[in-house]
Amino acid sequence: MESAKSISKIVKSLFLFLFLGTIASAQNFKLLRYDENYESLKDSSRNFYENLKFVPLNQEKDFYLSFGGEARYEYVDFNNEDWGRLNIGHNNFLLQRYDLHADIHLGKNFRVFAQLRSALQDGRINGPRGIDEDQLNIQNLFLDVTLWQQKDKKLILRAGRQELDYGSGRLISVREGPNARLYFTGGKIMYASSRFSIDAFAMMADTIYAGVFDNKMSKQLNLWGAYSKIIFPKAGNLDLYYLGIKRNESLFEQGIAPEKRHTAGTRFWKYGGGFIYNLEAAYQFGSFGSGNINAWTASADIGYSFENTKFKPTINLRNDYISGDLNKNNENLQTFNPLYPKGGYFGFSPQVGPVNLIDIHPYATLDLLPELKMQVDVVFNWRYSTNDGVYRPSGTLNLAGSASDERYIGTAYLANFTYSVNKYISVVSGIQYFKTGAFINDIIPNSKDGVFFNARLGFKF
Questions:
Q1: How far does CA 102 lie from the centroid of its chain?
Q2: What sign does the dihedral 422-117-154-104 (CA atoms) show?
Q3: Residue 393 region, left (φ>0) first, then alpha (ψ -120 to 50), else beta?
Q4: Distance (Å, whole) CA 217 – CA 169
């Protein structure tokens, strides 16, 4: 815990300097901080901040070091979590996240990226969830070796601990919304050109504990696969992927058993001005205990962005179908597994996860000011199968459902505001009201509507 506090003090001091000082503009920060590259500062005069982002280590400046980090503070207020089933009522708590990273480039062919992260929780009545607290851990520590490079084409081998994030985050996400982000340890080979890229990887997952450097590596392959992207100019982008997982124990309403699951999927998408779309479908097969897996998902998210209109509004309509188990009394399983999804795929702090679900989700955004963006959502949720339950955003079982014939889970109403003070400082706040439906009212005696509020202050450098 003392180590985590030390990192907190260092990061706070750096952010205080950045906030009070004059900071030059630079590239936007990436979701995966290791995707940033500050080599463009090589031949320029640099202020204090830019000297943190590019520290030459030799006269030729092809050996260099870059530093970065983040501090995030969040207040959470939850009333009737899990629709009153836990009998907690009002539950408010604080979350903090700190990280520091160093990116070392050793010529054109070698690179080492290292990152420490601390995620802290204070005040939650029923204790920290797995997504809330990991007091201090090594989030990234990997070596990149460039095996081949020619013009815009490159082949890179990466080995070590690393974060992963692919596509829209339905299946493999770094999980940015929750306080503790995901990571894996393993190897990845990456090929990229101007219009085509593909990653192939084999990874192990840790068992996460809340203390300091106490996470335990599984020592067996948990995740493997390949993810590719093809760019079609003007038309959009096509993703094709295969993902495999192996777990010694997986829990669904049907029961607990070893699981080996394969996912084959595709995504066709386009963002930007005018017509926008995100279409995705995936099929899963494999084994669960002595039975076979036969599961699937399909999603359509279609909208329009009015970039040349005042407030630059966007309007979208999304519809998801995600399979659930049809009969818990036989050995075969039709429940879709979202693998390692991001927590906020159906809105911030969602109450319903991407398993056994049909949803209709209209949403819209407005740029109220150049620095202030608003998003409003309504999410209508049904169970796909009345023989399966309701699952959490992580994909774990929350409420068994085969005892009820009711299908409608409930309606979530959301409003979210993001204010960018500048490139380095942001404020995010949101409120969610969840009106319970017939299924929740049938399963939970005296069920209650849920209300969620959060306010988050973030710093990055």
A1: 22
A2: positive
A3: alpha
A4: 23
CA–CA dist 181, 139 (Å, integer): 8
Task: Dump the DSSP string for 176-205.
Answer: -SSSSPP-EEEEEEEEE-SSEEEEEEEEE-
Closest CA to 390 of 408, 378, 372: 408
> What is the per-residue pLDDT for 267?
98
Structural contact between residues 187 and 158, judged by C-beta atoms closer than 8 angstroms: yes
Q: For residue 266, count CB atoms less than 10 angstroms from its CB and return exposed for 0-12, middle for 13-18, buried for 19 or more.
A: middle
On whether the CB atoms of residues 402 and 389 are closer than 8 A, the answer is yes
Instruction: Give yes or no for residue 381 having a pLDDT over 70.
Output: yes
Distance, CA of 412 to CA of 54 (rounded, Å)? 45
Residue 198 to residue 227: CA distance in whole angstroms: 6
| Phi then psi dihedrals of residue 10, to 5 deg | -60, -50
Average pLDDT of the chain? Answer: 92
Tokens, residue 328: 């818990």
Percent of the chain whose pLDDT exceeds 90? 83
Q: What is the mean pLDDT of residues 40-61?
A: 91
* Single-letter code of the amino acid located at 252: F
Report the alpha-carbon angle 237-238-240, nearest 5.
150
Average pLDDT over residues 156-179: 95
Question: What whole-number distance in Å separates Cα of residue 239 and Cα of residue 435?
Answer: 36
Tokens representing residue 75 in the block: 């207040």
Q: What band does 234 get if pLDDT is binned at 50, 70 and 90?
A: confident
How many Cα atoms occupy the beta-carbon half-sphere of 167 within 13 Å? Answer: 28
User: Any idea what DSSP says for residue 340?
Assistant: B
Q: Does residue 24 surpass a pLDDT of 50?
A: no
**Residue with the larger pLDDT of the pair 443 and 130:** 443
What pTM was computed for the model? 0.91
DSSP 337: -
Alpha-carbon distance 217 to 284, whole Å?
26
- Quick check: 284 pLDDT over 80? yes
Distance CA 17, CA 14 (A): 5
**Other CB atoms within 10 Å distance of the CB of residue 400:** 14
439 three-class SS:
helix
Look at residue 321 and give its three-state secondary structure.
Answer: strand
